[in-house]
Amino acid ABC transporter substrate-binding protein (Pseudacidovorax intermedius), 421 residues
Amino acid sequence: MTFRARLAPLAAALLLAAAGGASAQDGKVYKLAYIDPLSGPFANVGELMLAHVQYAVDDINAKGGVLKGQAKLQLLQFDSKLSAQESQSALQAAIDQGARAIVTGGSGSSVVTALVQAVNRWNQRNPGKEILVLNHSSIDPELTGKACSFWHFQTEANTAMKMKALANFIKKTPDVKKVYLLNQDYAHGKQWASYGRQLVGLARPDVQFVGEALHPIGRVKDFAPYVANIKASGADSVITGNWGQDMTLLLKAAGDAGYNLRYFNHSAGSVPGTVLAVSQARLGQLTWVAEWHPGQADSPRVDALAKAYKAKMGKDFLAPRIDMTPRLLAAAIDKAGSTETVAVARALEDLSFDSVVGPVRMRGEDHQLLLPQVVNTIAPVDGKTVKTGWEGTNYGFRTEAVYTGNELAQGTDCKMVRPGG
């Protein structure tokens, strides 16, 4: 487990002495813990997410914090190592240090599910010391479906919502005819494949699904054998939930093989290295979906935030939803007028928030945030639809379609059990 405190020694001693005690309850400091991968094959993803969360926390504090200046947020940092066991150890360490909320999501749905289950047990056994889980990137619909929890809030569109957006686009893209499903061998990868078959099949009954494969997450170094199988199937498109190095290595292998595929993905373009990989492959079209993409037209509020973020952090801004996550928490604390966890959770339910990507709402029945989704494709700069290159390349992002959260909202199997019955 890796923990990197960013406090002066004296301040750290004072805050740790108060952890879990009256001062945290009174609102002098509200601790939230970041638990996501900071080492291993997806460390670059974890560092990106951490930078977004840290920037938002610092900005909230710079503007006075919460509760009309009575409280400041403090971010603790832990390395999940992409492991459910390590994440639960980090959770206990965070609790011991006084955390009242967990920010997570980049470790994958199986890890986040384990964290939510651990939080459920802790909260049941420790009334008055409950904590929340704020999930910015794990998009398993079960987390706001059958496995929903009063203590868990999802600030990203889920798998079904994202696939619905892509299916709507594919419906209008006749050159997609034969589709291969290639995904990581864990819950999210299997769900991305399943929703692909279901929703794309409904939108385009003429599409043929010509093959399917699962591969170990983060362990494949050469995707050439998988690309060979895709080519043998005759596929023109791949529905893949791959992210991080599993996406960039797939692009490289297809480019090396001279295979010009279309890829449909949930968030690959917001991960460092993906645009560079597409430009180096010089083949293939990667279409993905997110709440915003760099260079998106008519997004002045995101542009301003991205500029301020780059000036302070020295990195490119990529994910408004991650920046939004602690801001939603701060808004709920202010709405509740308290840092007491049950009150904050109730304030989050049905919270409407004027975000940089437009109005969003945390649906109370299942704690799923309804936010816009933009279907976009990584493509060469042409001065018209793609005006700015990314990652030092002449490739950027072309907007294909924009959908509101309400347009993509799905039904839910959630049967929420709330405190007090």
